[in-house]
Every structure is written in structure tokens, then in C-alpha cells.
Design goal:
The complex is a heterodimer of chains A (about 110) and B (about 110). Chain A is mostly beta strands and about 110 residues long. Chain A has no helices and 11 strands. Classes of the chains: A mainly beta (about 110), B mainly beta (about 110).
């Protein structure tokens, strides 16, 4: 059972480039999330989804987009990378509204 | 709105000594509260959760936390630290629908020989 799988683990982007962080879960969870983690700041919610076809903004959505065409996948798109988006990104999923999230191992993104 | 404050950004203990990681919450009612742990270069993992069933909550790896409404606290403790406990710990509170969580700023636990 793989759980939550994120790719890539590391990526360096130039300012203005675009990329997609992939996230897949095999636990048939309805809820999925994208967080970013910056040193000393905890985790901030970027976007979340409560089911296929439904997405909503979190605390820090600017500069990002998401889609949820299937239960399993929840990709995060950066359209015009900026240095402020240098961070570690975590995808997570949960079965229902229990507070227990299952996290991937993270994707470290550097924008130069 | 619910929020949490972790009072120490870094805590250092010797192996075999007790661990205390402090968290205060802000809420107009008794919220659900969680502790998550993040080992180096890994994702986060749920350590324990409080959902009003019992004020003393036991989690994995010998950790426990006590919900104290009078002090608005939810401190994490362990009687005897192990080297493998070295990690970052996050106090977490649900905020809003969709199972959204608000994370504290984290406490880095260092365990020395």
C-alpha cells in the first residue's frame, strides 16, 4: 500500500517557468490537500478538495491552481514561478472529517 | 477562529529524560486538537488526537497529551526520551469545513546522548 505519493521530490525552476507537482493516493480518500511548509512557519493550506470535481482555496492560493478529475489524483500547478514559491510542498489525504491526514514525503521546490 | 501557539521553537533533552512540548489553543469552545510529528525529510504523521472523549490522550511511541480547559493548553509529554524521538512536532487545530487544519509553527526536539 503506497499511501500518498508525490513527484518530483526535488525540482529547481527558473523565474517564470511553469510546472506541475503530482500527487496520487491509493486509499480511496475523498479529501485531499496541498500544503506548503516554510521554516518557522508551520504548514499553510494552499488548496483542498472534498471529492472529484470539487476544489476550494485555502489560506495561500495565489500563484497556484489545482484540479481533481479523479479520486486518486490531485495535481498542483504553478503557472509563473516566483522566488516566493520556494518551499517544501506536501500533499495529504483523509477519508473523512476526522482530522487525521496522511501525508506524502514532500516535494522540495527552488525557484531561482 | 481557532488557533494554536507553540511556546518553544526548539527543545533539547538528554536521552532518558522527560519531554515536554507546550501548546496553547485559542477557541471559544472545547476544540478538537492534534499533535503531528515530522521526522527529518519525511511527511507528517498523526501522533495523537483529542476529541473530548477523555482529557488525557495516549498516542504512538509513548507520547501523551493532556487537555486542560482552564489553562487552554494541550501539552505533549513523554516520560523518557529516545534518540528516535528527534523530530519536529506540530500542534494542530481544525478550522472550518472540509477537514481543514491550522498548524502551529512547530517545535524542533533534539535528543542528546
Amino acid at each position: 500500500n503506497a499511501g500518498v505519493t508525490q513527484t518530483p521530490k526535488f525540482r529547481i525552476l527558473k523565474i517564470g517557468q511553469s510546472m506541475t507537482l503530482q500527487c496520487a493516493q491509493d486509499m480511496n480518500h475523498n479529501y485531499m490537500y496541498w500544503y506548503r511548509q516554510d521554516p518557522g512557519m508551520g504548514l499553510k493550506l494552499i488548496y483542498y478538495s472534498v471529492g472529484a470535481g470539487i476544489t476550494d482555496k485555502g489560506e495561500v492560493p495565489n500563484g497556484y491552481n489545482v484540479s481533481r478529475s479523479t479520486t486518486e489524483d490531485f495535481p498542483l500547478r504553478l503557472e509563473l514561478a516566483a522566488p516566493s514559491q520556494t518551499s517544501v510542498y506536501f500533499c495529504a489525504s483523509s477519508y473523512k472529517n476526522t482530522g487525521e491526514l496522511f501525508f506524502g514525503e514532500g516535494s522540495r521546490l527552488t525557484v531561482l | 477562529a481557532q488557533s494554536v501557539t507553540q511556546l518553544d521553537s526548539h527543545v533539547s533533552v538528554s536521552e532518558g529524560t522527560p519531554v515536554l512540548l507546550r501548546c496553547n489553543y485559542s477557541s471559544s469552545y472545547s476544540p478538537s486538537l492534534f499533535w503531528y510529528v515530522q521526522h527529518p525529510n519525511k511527511g507528517l504523521q498523526l501522533l495523537l488526537k483529542y476529541t473530548s472523549a477523555a482529557t488525557l490522550v495516549k498516542g504512538i511511541n509513548g507520547f501523551e497529551a493532556e487537555f486542560k480547559k482552564s489553562e487552554t493548553s494541550f501539552h505533549l509529554t513523554k516520560p523518557s526520551a529516545h534518540m528516535s524521538d528527534a523530530a519536529e512536532y506540530f500542534c494542530v487545530v481544525p478550522t472550518g469545513g472540509g477537514n481543514k487544519l491550522t498548524f502551529g509553527t512547530g517545535t524542533q526536539l533534539k535528543v542528546e546522548l
